[in-house]
Amino acid sequence: MGFLIESTLKAVGIITSLDREFISIVLLSLRVSGTAVIIASAAGILLAVGIYQMQSPVKRLLIPLLNTSMGLPPVVVGLFIYLLLSRSGPLGSLNLLYTPTAMIIAQCVLATPIIAGIAHASMISADPEIRFTALCLGASELHATIRVITETRYSILSSVVAGLGRVIAEVGAVLIVGGNIAGYTRVMTTAIALEADRGDFILAIALGMILLLLSLCINAVLYIFQKRGAID
Hints:
Layout: H1 2-16, H2 20-53, H3 59-69, H4 74-85, H5 100-124, H6 128-136, H7 141-151, H8 153-168, H9 172-178, H10 188-198, H11 201-231
Helix pairs in contact: 1-11, 2-5, 2-8, 3-5, 4-5, 4-9, 5-8, 5-9, 6-7, 8-11, 10-11
């Protein structure tokens, strides 16, 4: 117990002293995950809208596929992207492996289905009268869909927050494609894994505190959006 208390106090010291290595890891984590979620949000919401508007029988196959992809194993995604970006892979000439860009790609693949799945579920659960009324008033299919999106905006925003929660704490995929290179691709989750493996728990605890704080904030925002969506 004494070791835990001492390590925790030292970890707090790292946070309050704004240790350079600590700050660089946190900032890189926020940059990678933030960029990934922005891209995944655009792709996911467009995908959700496309499936929502689709009238083809293919839609019956796409929805289960989308729901299944929401639970993609991170290590499998990391392995797939690694094979794509490796020197012998089809995208090897881009030299993206072991770079922050590769990590962003991996997180996009993980976050996009979650955002698309939740957004689509929100849209189809909306009151059908919203879309029907808009069409009866002369709105196009696109404008009617935009009206549905407006009415379910808080639920759709919840999907974005859920996507961020998925990737900010992800370790498997980013470790495979990023390589955990100090000062370049080392993010909070991979740094925690490395430091714990080394037996140096102080930095790991400090990063864990920030990760827990971010998770708390993400869940708080998610709760607010869900509550507002339920009220509306």
